[in-house]
């Protein structure tokens, strides 16, 4: 494994326009459950008696707005989760002008919390909320501090600014993500299975020099990568920082 860490270090040091693409595996070390693995969020919310896809859909929001709001307050609002070493390392590279920023499938907002400013959140973010009627906007800290479920202006339900099942990804976000990938000399994938479409399909647009994939399990793009490391995210970055 040491030679792979050294290779990773050399790739990072030799790159000037790095783009990061991250999935749920990056936030597991922060205590955020991933969606689909055993014991992940899908396993947990299926205990509520409905299919997870329904509970996270526009259909549920329309059928039972109060139930939807109660659901996300119970299952999605995470008060005590903080960015981990991987989020911080990514943010530092952007601050050092080495990275073009992050494309993430995650909705936890931890990249922004860590200090990354150029973040394309493909599936939206739990840091922001809005009223389903008047679109008045709220931030997560305010929602949680006031246990807010209804808009203070019009009294209608407030929803998180995430992409629900039945909704399309934001076109501007996709456009910005594609620009990041097209301009990158190195694309580093961290903690994504690269099977969720259309987000994962963005990877096929990369034409740069180095594709690095770091994930616990194999991905469909492993054979196309310059370097593949199947290991814990935090351990890899700790090992990387120890290499001189």
How are the elements arranged and paired?
Blueprint: H1 2-13, E1 18-22, H2 41-45, H3 52-55, H4 58-63, H5 65-75, H6 85-95, E2 99-104, H7 110-114, E3 119-121, E4 124-131, E5 137-139, H8 140-145, E6 158-162, H9 171-183, E7 186-190, E8 210-214, E9 227-229, H10 233-242
Parallel strand pairs: 1-2, 1-7, 2-3, 7-8, 8-9
Antiparallel strand pairs: 4-5, 4-6
Helix pairs in contact: 1-10
The oligomeric status of these chains comes to single chain
CATH superfamily of one domain: TPP-binding domain
Would you tell me the structural class of the helices and strands?
alpha/beta
CATH architecture descriptor text of one domain: 3-Layer(aba) Sandwich
CATH topology of one domain: Rossmann fold
Order of helices and strands: HEHHHHHEHEEEHEHEEEH
**What is the C-level CATH assignment of one domain?**
Alpha Beta
- Rg value: 19 Å
Number of strands: 9
The residue-averaged pLDDT reads: 91
By DSSP (H or I, 4+ residues per run), the number of helices equals 10
Any overview of this molecule?
- The protein is built from 10 helices and 9 strands.
- The chain has a domain at 1-32 and 82-123 and 169-244: Rossmann fold.
- The strands form 2 sheets. Strands 3-2-1-7-8-9 form a 6-stranded parallel β-sheet, with helices on both faces.
- Helix content is 34%, strand content 18%.
